[in-house]
């Protein structure tokens, strides 16, 4: 019996989702793209799951579209390999935070998949590359716009117009990933971050993520007005007693995180 192309392990309110085509460097076949969409739909519908960790099996995070399949299907028409079950759109349907555990190479479509996550933690083995120009196709899942916003337009042009690889430490220096850890520490670091996120007010976790994302898509002035509107609507339901009950816990957390 064939191995499933995606694995899901739930621990508490966190789901670890692993792309599971290690022999194909987790390339995004039609089957895997469909599995990602179905998995995200199931997790979003599960009230017990509030944070997702996305990683890859084997030595790759994701090598992008399955080029063997792409060569057979081509790019013409509305049912081509790029438009069918776009995994970036699929991930956007999950309302909670998505932590990308980048265990190895994230290439082209895999790079776009990484950029669809909210936070990236990279193994020292991680490397990123945009090879669209070398394959001879244009990106369709957001890489041309998201990368420049993440690391600056000049650095994005350097990567996209050369197809060169970016190592984990340089990705951290450029602000693409939040931190770099040893391979054996990657999942534990992701799970620790997930636990921190799960310890905040449950209402705020998806709502604050949405506010940040919605504001990022607007001009600064419009984003500030959005924050004011959302703040007025949500904060009016928070009582003084609620704030006071949480104040001591916040103070104690600050003492333990001095370093």
**What is the second-level CATH architecture of the largest domain?**
Alpha-Beta Complex
CATH topology of the largest domain: 2-enoyl-CoA Hydratase, Chain A, domain 1
What general outline do the C-alpha atoms trace?
Answer: globular
* Low-confidence runs of at least 5 consecutive residues: none
Number of helices: 12
Radius of gyration: 19 Å
**Helix/strand order:** EEHEEHHEEHEEHHHEHEHHHH
Biggest sheet, spatial arrangement of strands:
1-2-3-5-7-10
Helical content, roughly? 40-55%
Total number of beta strands: 10
How many separate domains?
2
Structural class: alpha/beta
Distance between the termini: 50 Å
Q: The biggest beta sheet, please? A: 6 strands, mixed
**Proportion in β-strands:** 15-25%
What is the C-level CATH assignment of the largest domain? Alpha Beta
CATH superfamily of the largest domain: 2-enoyl-CoA Hydratase, Chain A, domain 1
**Average pLDDT figure:** 91
């Amino acid at each position: 019996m064939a191995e499933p192309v995606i694995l899901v392990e739930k621990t508490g309110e966190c789901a670890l989702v692993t792309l599971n085509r290690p022999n194909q460097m987790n390339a995004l076949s039609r089957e895997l793209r469909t599995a990602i969409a179905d998995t995200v739909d199931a997790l979003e519908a599960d009230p017990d799951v509030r944070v997702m960790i996305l990683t890859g099996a084997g030595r790759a995070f994701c090598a992008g579209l399955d080029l063997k399949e792409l060569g057979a299907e081509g790019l013409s028409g509305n049912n081509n390999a790029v438009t069918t079950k776009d995994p970036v759109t699929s991930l956007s349907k999950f309302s909670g935070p998505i932590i990308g555990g980048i265990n190895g190479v994230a290439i082209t479509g895999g790079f776009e998949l990484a950029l669809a996550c909210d936070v990236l933690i990279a193994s020292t083995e991680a490397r990123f590359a945009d090879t669209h120009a070398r394959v001879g196709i244009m990106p369709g899942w957001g890489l041309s716009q998201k990368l420049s916003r993440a690391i600056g337009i000049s650095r994005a042009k350097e990567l996209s117009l050369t197809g060169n690889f970016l190592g984990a430490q340089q990705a951290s220096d450029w602000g693409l990933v939040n931190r770099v850890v040893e391979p054996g520490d990657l999942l534990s670091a992701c799970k620790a971050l997930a636990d921190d996120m799960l310890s905040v007010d449950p209402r705020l976790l998806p709502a604050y993520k949405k506010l940040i994302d919605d504001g990022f898509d607007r001009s600064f002035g419009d984003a500030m007005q959005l924050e004011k509107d959302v703040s007025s609507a949500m904060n009016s339901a928070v009582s003084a007693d609620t704030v006071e009950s949480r104040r001591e816990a916040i103070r104690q957390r600050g003492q333990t995180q001095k370093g």
